[in-house]
User: Fold this.
Amino acid sequence: MALYLVGDIQGCYAELDALLEKVSFNPRFDQLWAVGDLVARGPNSLAVLQLFQQLGDAAKTVLGNHDLHLLSILTGVKAAKPSDRLEPILALPSEQRENIIDWLCQCPLLLQQQQLVVTHAGIYPWWTVAEAAAYAQEVTTSLQAAWQNQQLGHWLHTMYGNQPAQWQRGLAGEQRIRFIINAFTRMRFVYADGRLDFAGKESPHSDSLSHGLIPWFELWQPCDQRLVFGHWAALAGATQRDDVIGLDTGCVWGEHLTLWRWPDGQRWQQPALNGVKPLR
Assistant:
């Protein structure tokens, strides 16, 4: 059995299919884990969702910011933009759309197996892995309860916002849930005092980088866990660390989709096909 982890797919189904073909992926023996952002901006988000659903227990994903955004669109909290390229999903019959909502609500913010930990954007550097896992479970429990109690729209509406920007153990209610979600799905840069920055998307080596911003993983203390994340295309996976693995290599922006095997770390990359470029 092999466990493969894939970077941000974002609707790039053809590239994912090509990678799985390269490694002779067999769902009877192998597993596929995604770092989130299955959908949005690429040409075939529906096919990606259908594949993960069809693979059943052989495929898992954490939620990314675009996956949560899809939930908000499907529940009427947000309007879809042309650049999302989600029309085939939105055109589905209501029963199939609800099936997608239900499936996404079962997806966690953190996956863990032995010494492997997977999230979308990373782990807030002032948390331990154990704390992060507990906070992620809080959100999953809250999300599933909102769906079951027909309050998902309200839950998603209150999820949006940049405050609080800094973690405090006493945070409660909507503010606590919002911070945890932001840390797991939107974080790239942080400040030394623990504040999250939500504006910077550039490379850490960019000349335009604002003063005081630090890539979150530079403050992550080494531990016996291997942490895998996505979300940061401009980073191109270059963390300069063996224990923090970045897998977003910008396929939807015309770069590559990356597949990484645990635990030996072998990588496969598939260039974007047909000059894939999203509408902006």
